From TrEMBL, chains A, B:
One annotated GO molecular function: geranylgeranyl diphosphate synthase activity
InterPro entries, per the entry: Isoprenoid_synthase_dom_sf, Polyprenyl_synt, Polyprenyl_synt_CS
Protein name (database record): Geranylgeranyl diphosphate synthase type I
Homology family: Belongs to the FPP/GGPP synthase family.
Annotated CDD domains: Trans_IPPS_HT
EC number(s) from the headed UniProt entry: 2.5.1.1, 2.5.1.10, 2.5.1.29
Keywords: Magnesium, Metal-binding, Transferase
SUPFAM superfamilies per UniProt: Terpenoid synthases
Stretches with biased composition (Basic and acidic residues): 13-25
Positions of the UniProt region annotated as Disordered: 1-34
Organism, as annotated: Streptomyces achromogenes
Taxonomy, superkingdom: Bacteria
Pfam family, one: polyprenyl_synt
Length: 370, 370
């Protein structure tokens, strides 16, 4: 059920916490069920292609990839598999279906797998750079296999992805490969901006910078996934671009809400300790919005962020972000981005029935609780 | 002048030191001049394409790439450029010319630039993994910009390379992209094997393993470069495969000779201190051949390699590799590989005139002194 979003094309979301709980406002569970079915159908179609691509790797690299995707334990024994929600391949297939029906969806499966490989290549490398030790509730590849193997497995996944597209006989495959390659450059620039910002003081960062970073790091690949689906449906250039814009805007909405959850989310639902983002002094979107608000609360927040984290200050810090307008700004921005996303989608796919899969996914990513 | 090699198709190379000096035996200087002209002509054609690809990168990544290619100093001021010998793009163009004449060479320039981008992406990443601090007489990217930027610039160069091929309207571009992507996977497996061997004892490594590693790490991309050139000339599958085999075998010959130089090369010509490879306990091809020879000298070498390096032991170590047959084996292997390379080349390009560029390059890489 996507009516909650479609009902409010202006972007107003009734002041509801967009992601605090799956069953807020009544629309969540139904929308969640719909999206769950879309994701499950996509996984059933894409997983065999993904698995066969990874199985084609030489043993040493295959081992790292199988562990990363959750198909093998570190010791090489089979695992149940926990490769995340796989939103991106679902977007590829939903976009293909929206613009070309089931036939387009069927021929886009390989491209969907390629997009998921690209996403996972960036995760493998980001985890090395960010020294993140946990991903999908499992130890990250570099902690298990070392930096070199994690970097090399990521390199190989990028090559697999672009090689699969190049070898795909579909007439749109070359355009899709070029688009995915351009997106990889953008993802790299986004991650570069992110790591560079880590080294700067919190008051040296503008809201434009952090929005541009989030668009490059998160929006670009969601947009690219939708655009690739549209290409495989034989869509016009204008429709391909509209689908890209839809995915980009939905991606930014997703990031804004993710950042809100990172501060105000329920630890029982996020699985992360309360205030983890603030404790880590993360320059997330609501925090930068608060810091650049010119309010007294902004000055207080800057002072708190300049000092090392003390648990006793958590409540004060959280409140400062809120009082400086960081939370309200992020929620309004998210609603505004989602509204823009829906506008772009309606332009390319006026029939709500055809757009159903994309709408469910967009609502899912902006209304989740973890 | 490539007659020195062509004169001896059996592979015997008159017992000459293949790379101790450029002007040994008289054939070197002429062959070197020929190859220098081929390399220079290739660089003149490929550099603008390469430069424009790199200029298309977002600023932060472009800066790293420009420094890596020697076009900018670390502070961003322009530099004269020292991007290595650029053998691989020269092989692409020479292979295209050998099988399709000047017209094929002209349309293969973008593919040649793509292959050079792939090579440099692997260098950027290898330097991070191997903690190498100098490349082309300049500090490596990770020492200047940090690990994250070096990894991201490498990722972006791979994307640029495969994206350029995907967007190339030439009818062979998709096949070339698929081939380059498969080669990247092989390069990654080769580097993985190399880093894994670093962690093992010198007597635990077989000659087959180290030969397979060298083929994946060095032979694969030289073979791929030749194959891509053949594809752009519209060659038959058999000829494409023959050119790949030519490049692979020449690449192995190159590596064998490189390893010989690493032990017996003249420091005044190699630019590296005498015995640097032995001091670093490198498990190079002659060393592993010596260690696995079953001779008394092999036992002596194993004992020396098991202890930390002492300059006083250098002469004894060098002599042990030689007495265990490591040097003779490597030279015979190199000659044998070169003979196989020429056999493959003759199969695809029987006209020595047409094959001239490839012959010059093959002789150059196996007869160089640094």
């Amino acid at each position: 059920m996507t009516s909650a979003v479609r009902r409010n094309p202006s972007g107003a979301r009734d002041g509801r916490e967009p992601a605090g709980s799956r069953d807020d406002g009544g629309a969540g569970p139904a929308g969640g069920h719909e999206a769950a079915a879309v994701l499950e159908g996509s996984r059933a179609a894409v997983d065999p292609e993904l698995r066969s691509a990874i199985d084609s790797l030489p043993g040493s690299l295959r081992r790292v990839a199988l562990h990363h995707f959750g198909w093998e334990h570190a010791d090489g024994t089979p695992a149940a598999g926990n490769a995340g929600k796989a939103i991106r391949p679902a977007l590829v297939l939903a976009a293909a279906a929206a613009l070309g029906g089931p036939a387009a969806r069927a021929v886009a499966v390989r491209a969907a797998a390629a997009v998921e490989l690209v996403h996972n290549f960036t995760l493998l490398h980001d985890d090395v750079m960010d020294r993140d030790t946990t991903r999908r509730h499992r130890p990250t590849a570099w902690t298990v296999f070392g930096d070199a193997d994690a970097i090399l497995a990521g390199d190989a996944l990028q090559a697999l992805a672009l090689g699969m597209l190049a070898a795909d006989p579909h007439p749109a495959s070359a355009a899709a490969a070029a688009r995915v390659a351009a997106c990889v450059v953008e993802l790299c620039a986004g991650q570069q901006a992110d790591t560079a910002m880590e080294r700067r003081g919190p008051t040296e960062i503008t809201l434009e910078e952090v929005l541009a970073m989030a668009e490059a790091k998160t929006g670009a690949l969601l947009g690219c996934a939708c655009a690739v689906g549209a290409l495989y449906a034989g869509a016009t250039e204008a429709d391909v671009d509209a689908l890209d814009a839809f995915g980009r805007e939905a991606g930014l909405a997703f990031q804004l809400i993710d950042d809100v959850i990172g501060i105000w989310g329920d630890p029982r639902q996020t699985g992360k300790p309360a205030g983890a983002d603030l404790a880590a002094r993360k320059k997330s979107l609501p925090v930068v919005a608060a810091l650049t608000s010119g309010t007294p609360a902004a000055a207080e927040l800057a002072e708190l962020y300049a000092a090392p984290y003390r648990p006793a200050d958590l409540d004060r810090t959280t409140l400062a972000v809120e009082r400086a307008g960081g939370r309200a700004w992020a929620q309004e921005q998210a609603a505004d981005r989602m509204s823009r996303a829906l506008h772009e989608l309606t332009r390319a796919v006026p029939d709500p029935e055809a757009a159903g899969g994309l709408l469910s996914l967009a609502e899912f990513v902006t209304r989740r609780n973890a």
